[in-house]
Automatic annotation (TrEMBL):
GO terms for biological process: regulation of DNA-templated transcription. This is Transcriptional regulator, XRE family. Residues 61-114 form the HTH cro/C1-type domain. The lineage of its organism: Bacteria, Pseudomonadati, Bacteroidota, Sphingobacteriia, Sphingobacteriales. Transmembrane segments: none annotated. It holds the Pfam family HTH_3. GO terms for molecular function: core promoter sequence-specific DNA binding. InterPro entries: Antitox_HigA, Cro/C1-type_HTH, Lambda_DNA-bd_dom_sf.
């Protein structure tokens, strides 16, 4: 087991190839430990070189609605009328603080995402 930091794209590809070989290794074995360490090194490299930005609040709501199999009408108790929901989801109006609180509870979207700034459509 030769573990070293991932400093380049070549190192990254080599680590991915090795992890592919030992991925199913049993825990608490030499190869299992190597797989665990490689996973952490790969994750660290990916976080630094391929960051994934959080979606804007409206996209986060739409994603969660799809995951939970919800329609716009299902949000009326949280956000008000169907026309208000349509305005929000089409980025014509902003979320209110009360809506953010309710969405956080109902859809389990962190408030830190829901309070993020986003551009309205004119």
């Amino acid at each position: 087991m030769e573990i070293k930091p991932i400093k380049s794209e070549k190192d990254y590809q080599t680590a991915l190839e090795r992890l592919d070989v030992i991925f199913d290794a049993a825990p608490n074995t030499k190869e299992g430990d190597e797989a665990e360490i490689l996973s952490l090194l790969i994750e660290n490299y990916e976080n630094q070189h391929f960051p994934i930005e959080a979606p804007d609040p409206i996209e986060a709501i739409k994603i969660r609605m799809e995951e939970m199999n919800l329609k716009q009408k299902d949000l009326t108790k949280i956000m008000g009328s169907k026309s208000r929901i349509s305005e929000i989801l089409n980025k014509k109006k902003r979320l209110t603080v009360d809506m953010i609180r309710e969405l956080e509870k109902a859809l389990h979207i962190p408030a830190s995402i829901l309070v993020s700034n986003y551009k309205l459509v004119q």
